[in-house]
Amino acid sequence: MNLFTGTRSKRGAATRARSRSVLRTLAVVSTALALAIPVTSATATPAAAPAAIPPGLSCHTGKHAIDEYTGFALCRNNGSQTQTFWVHLVCGWAPDVDGNRVTVRPGESDQSTAHCGKIGTGIGEIHVRP
Description:
- Helices cover 22% and strands 31% of the residues.
- It is an alpha+beta fold.
């Protein structure tokens, strides 16, 4: 029925069914296209690259053998200058944490440790920061 004139449409039932079918198909196709476009492409921010280990340090990183929420960086200074480093843990749901700052003279080794909060999912990544 036309709301402005109060008259009925002269189209038949078959035409109305076909119109509904076309509208339904159009709705399904447009919804599928909208869902196919990744939302993250427009809103994602580029992740910062992890800091490189300073020249002269050789490091081994890992999780504690008994406690998977504790991570470490064991570094040796193979350079000719004193170096300072610390471990940085990416902790999943819990906030990321930094370990103690460690200063090593040439030829020395030392370790920095940190502990993720128990509300998190454990250690996701371990980085050495200069």
